[in-house]
Amino acid sequence: MGHTFAAANPAPLGLMGFGMTTVLLNLHNAQLVPIGAAILAMGLVFGGMTQFVAGLLEYANGNTFGMTAFMAYGAFWISLVVLLFLPHWGLVPASSPALLGSYLWMWGLFTAIMAVGTLAASRAHQTVFFSLMLLFALLGSAEMFAIPTLNVIAGYEGLFCGLSAIYLAAAEIFAEQFGRAILPIGLHRPAPLHRDDLVAHMS
């Protein structure tokens, strides 16, 4: 007798990796905690490598959007840690404010493209991506124009962005476990009980 294989939904893992790391880093940007090894380790392992793995799993599920988002933002966190460590190791000079601002704005441009894609998904997805687009714009502008206050504002906005991703991850975990929506995410069309992640149906 044959058995039907049901692939697990990797989106909550990727969202948690993104959300928790974003919250931790932006506690620093908001000047609530100093930079430290906990932030860098989280960025490298959970925000970076774990998100990258989630993207590979989304590839196996045939989800182009999820694959692109998780692998790209996983690469972002890894590149950010590398960007900080290369000058520390004396391998390359530190990036100028203009170069670092350009780096952040390029990620903002990428996020803007992904944010448009979430218009076919839930309101919760849109909240995560549009708030992330604003976060990159603020951080890039803070570096480019040497406005430290913008960095602090970005920190608080980043806390909102990260917490919104954690909320969405929790909503998807609960929906999988209980077979029904527990936390509202602003669906605008019916979704299967055990696949609440509309992004999985966008590709």
Automatic annotation (TrEMBL):
Transmembrane region(s): 32-57, 69-91, 103-121, 128-147, 153-175
PANTHER family: INNER MEMBRANE PROTEIN YAAH, SUCCINATE-ACETATE_PROTON SYMPORTER SATP
Pfam family, one: Gpr1_Fun34_YaaH
Coiled coil stretches, renumbered: none
Keyword Transmembrane helix appears in the UniProt entry: yes
Superkingdom to which the source organism belongs: Bacteria
Protein name: Acetate transporter
Recorded topology in the membrane: Multi-pass membrane protein
Organism: Komagataeibacter medellinensis
Localization annotation: Membrane
InterPro entries: Gpr1/Fun34/SatP-like (IPR000791), GPR1_FUN34_YAAH (IPR047622), SatP (IPR047623)
Similarity-based family: Belongs to the acetate uptake transporter (AceTr) (TC 2.A.96) family.
Keywords recorded for this protein, A-Z: Membrane, Transmembrane, Transmembrane helix
